[in-house]
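Action item from last week, closing it out:
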Amino acid sequence: MSQTLLSQINSPADLKAHSVDELTQIAQELRNFIIEIVATKEGHLGASLGVIELTIALHYIFNTPDDLLVWDVGHQAYGHKILTGRRDVFHTNRDLNGISGFPKREESFYDTFGVGHSSTSISAALGMAMASQLKGIERKHIAVIGDASIASGMAFEALNHAGVSGADLLVILNDNAIGIDPAVGALKDYLTKTKSGKETGRDNIFESLNFDYSGPIDGHDLPLLLKELERQKTLKGPRLLHVRTTKGKGLKQAEIDQVRYHAPGKFDKTTGNITPTDTSQLPPKFQEVFGHTIVELAEQNKNIIGITPAMPTGSSMKIMMDAMPDRAFDVGIAEQHAVTLAAGMVTQGLIPFCNIYSTFLQRAYDQVIHDVALQKLPVIFCLDRAGIVGQDGATHHGNFDLAFLNCIPDLIIAAPMDAIELRNLMYTAQLGIELPMAIRYPRGRGRILNWKQSFQKLEIGKSRVIHEGSKIAILSIGSTGAMVDDMISDENLDITHVDMRFLKPLDTQVLDAVFEQHEHIITIEDGTVVGGLGSVVVNYASAKAYKNNIYKLGTPDSFIQHGPTKDLHKIAGIDSEAVLKLITELSTR
């Protein structure tokens, strides 16, 4: 691969040393470089390819890092990283101890704000602009945000404030009509009409918010971008530049299938064809089990509704959206709205399954408490990507759900050990529970091939004893139980294993039996060790004055960084090796 010019660029200062005519070649070399690395290393491809020209233009015109550039989400920041001194380590992207897949403050002073979740860039950049204003510092502040992210409530809150702030803030709307899945909602329709010049007779929404609006302009026309950004550099106050781009630009397949090529896995760098993998003999992903099961249940129960905030493909809600388009809804990047929408539906007799990634439910915490649990409305939350999720890292791990949900009254919390339990928990939840219920499950595949079995109603708050032994008992919750089960069978261990299944309500009957019959108790969970299963068991033991030895295994009280899930489980001490080592130590005491 030729990097004649790109190989000379280690900072934006090096970029500025090149002529405007050379920037087009740099753009092509940068595209080729990203394609070559991501083809074998995997990662977020389409978004970065779509903003190559914009990234070059921003660093060429503005004086970064003195001028502060904030990216939203960060899926599109690969080009930014490569141009700001990380070209030679880009091959470590998302690896354990490698660079992060997202902008990260501790990684580079060019990464002015750490991101990973959407719709934060305008608020952050506005905060920086107001700070500069207060300190009397002359600099520019730029927030780059996509058309899916700008529809989120937080982005609107920031626009509303920025419009009256007088701050020197440039918002660049990267409009490609897609997030991870196609963008949805009235704002998307508005932007589509704006792009085609059909907004006659309508006020410009951004000008109504006191923004100096410019555009839309072609985000792949580098000379035009340079000219417009040079003009924007001379202006002050809140401005919005509307830029049209194509996600996946420069790789034909990525332009055609933008959803799949958001993060395509491994692919051929020349043809763009995704490397085929035979999954026919593998167990299904938990997400797939959810998607097929909700359709199966909805066919039997006309009151079942599906809701997801902008993740229909990733969560497999799209299976229901395709099968029953009038009963499954993508509400866009709007987790708060998704939760309260579901609550409103419950008041009218519907049974909503609200499917949200665990890390994104953090954004709707008040709604879970105020709008759902406080009113005892039986919304069914299916929390995808719970626990450690791997290479997306700290912003995406779902480590905290057990802990932050556990303190909410009138909320049932469950975690299936395998696909069959997930199906049965979903089946049980729609039979007429009187309280809201959260079912959390991990990213990736389970271990059961023959998973599509007849439904079985489960008793709320009831665990199951999988193995019976002496001296040592392991209490697991969620998918960690499958690892424990395999380990006990492989090592032929004489220990008790209880799949707790429910964190709340807690099966105190089985806990009493475990404490009375075993000397050592081990709890294990794919979640923070603070406030989850281990904490609940310790609190129960204290209340009942049990004197057993209790050992809590879970993710530590720190943010887990990025890397393969297997490696991160090992680092966190929740892999089979760590558990077996502890069991061996306890067996000799």
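Closing note: Residues 464-587 form a domain with the Rossmann fold fold (CATH 3.40.50.920).
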